[in-house]
Amino acid sequence: MNLPFFGETPVFLPKDQAGDGLLPWVIGVMLFLTGLATAMGLALGQGLDRWSEGLATTLTVQIVDADEGVRARQTEDALKMLRATPGVAKAEVMADADVMALISPWLGDLPIDAGLPVPTLIHVELDKAGVVNTAGLAERLRATAKGARLDDHQAWMASILELVAALRLLLLGIVALIVLSTVAIVIFGCRAGLATHRDSIEIMHMMGAEDSMIASAFDRRYLLHGLVGGLGGIVMAILVILALLHLAEQMGQGLLTASLPGSGVLWWLLLLPVIAGAVTMGTARITVRRALLELV
Amino acid sequence: MISFENVGMRYGMGGEVLSDITFRLERGSFHFLVGPSGAGKTSLLKLLYLARRPSRGLIHFFDKDLARIEREELPRLRRRIGVVFQDFRLLDHLSAFDNVALPLQIKGAKRVQIADHVEELLSWVGLKDRMHARPATLSGGEKQRVAIARAVINKPDLLVADEPTGNVDPEMAMRLMHLFVELNKIGTTIVIASHDQHLVETIGAPVLSLDKGNMTYHAGGKPRDPDETGAQP
């Protein structure tokens, strides 16, 4: 078969792909793993961006005085001060039921009237991230309502960001290892192919075929191996991710669903077989050209 | 057209298989290369079809100094050379037609042109009915004829043949020699390595004789067409 990109070149390699028939399968497995790792890496990044963006425009104020009357008065004062602050879009007291739901993982499901001194929480929404000087706001809050605490989520966000960054680095490392392994496999496959077809290559060489002409036969073959194997692997990876998404949705686990890649990420994965084809073709080209230089 | 001056050749660190070889092939000349087995005939042919470079000495190829020819220029020169290998070296997965078509494809000839030329030549060597057969299904003589057809399809400037009639019957040998003489008449320089003394005498061309890597030259006349001399197989 002559592909337009490669021009009209003689087909001198046998079609049965002797010596490298397993290569598309190996590339398929590699791309399956790469697909999963890449999707997770991209999803982590996207999920974290969405999540941190949401947190960067919200603040939480805790009024912690044990006396209920004092707490109510301080809450009123804090609300007035917050609503008067430029950049604050909304400041509302969270319902008791919501507060109890927040602490239920630690204390269990308690009735609202359990007599537990639960702090009052004020949910604050900002016009945009960074519009308010949180240090100054915290100081003014303490002046308005003694013991009030302002939580801008940065303390624990920093740890989570570090963890996610480490995870993404790990996934990047895995992808790099897989790509290197694929290149090594293609080099071995190519050398095996060269050994198998050495006689054909020598004949073509002696009849005056240029190195580029001989190499292009291998280019075509390995490009197809990369595309076909890569597409198979990526389709499998996409099916696995879709199955996981389906399961997560059925389980109704918000956190799990959030950490799985969305459909936007899946489209990006379709680029991987093209990259795999380019990598296998490039590797084959370099390997074959180097081997041809050994001939006079 | 081709000249060798004090050419020596060795494989790796081994001893010289060719020593101080000096000769000249004029354009359109016809030479036999003879000598006992191990005399260095195949090594000399390898130098002639540019599969090796000499270890020493000077070779001029189509009036160019081989030592000064860049590797990138060699394919263009090789396309001017037709080679018939002793072991044929046909590509087993290709049909006789496709094997013969390869030099034209490498040259970039048009598909229609290729089909016409290849069919005509295969008919001429008596393989019209076998043109779609794979080498594995061909007899030794048929493979030989395919190899010869592949070597001459491009009307090369130089034809190098290693025992080209070794596997065919005497009648076909004469027919093939007729083809070589015809090619020679249109200007192709021909070098044929052969053990067949009868054939050498019949054609009567000059002889390059190799023994233990050393060459002697025996002048001869213009090659005689076996058809015209009425030579018996």
Percentage of helical residues of chain B?
25-40%
Instruction: Please state the structural category of chain B.
Output: alpha/beta
Instruction: Give me the Rg of chain A, rounded.
Output: 31 Å
Mean pLDDT of chain A: 82
Global structural class of chain A: alpha+beta
How would you sum up this structure in a few lines?
The complex is a heterodimer of chains A (296) and B (233). With 296 residues, chain A is α+β, with helices and mostly antiparallel strands.
Summarize the helices and strands and which ones pair or pack.
The complex is a heterodimer of chains A (296) and B (233).
Chain A: H1 23-56, E1 58-63, H2 68-84, E2 88-93, H3 96-107, E3 120-126, H4 134-144, E4 149-151, H5 154-196, H6 198-206, H7 211-251, H8 254-258, H9 263-269, H10 271-292
Antiparallel strand pairs in A: 1-3, 1-4, 2-3
Chain B: E1 2-10, E2 16-25, E3 30-34, H1 41-48, E4 56-61, E5 64-65, H2 74-78, E6 81-84, H3 96-107, H4 111-124, H5 140-152, E7 158-162, H6 170-185, E8 189-193, H7 197-203, E9 207-211, E10 214-218, H8 226-229
Parallel strand pairs in B: 3-8, 3-9, 6-7, 7-8
Antiparallel strand pairs in B: 1-2, 1-4, 4-5, 9-10
Helix pairs in contact in B: 3-4, 3-5
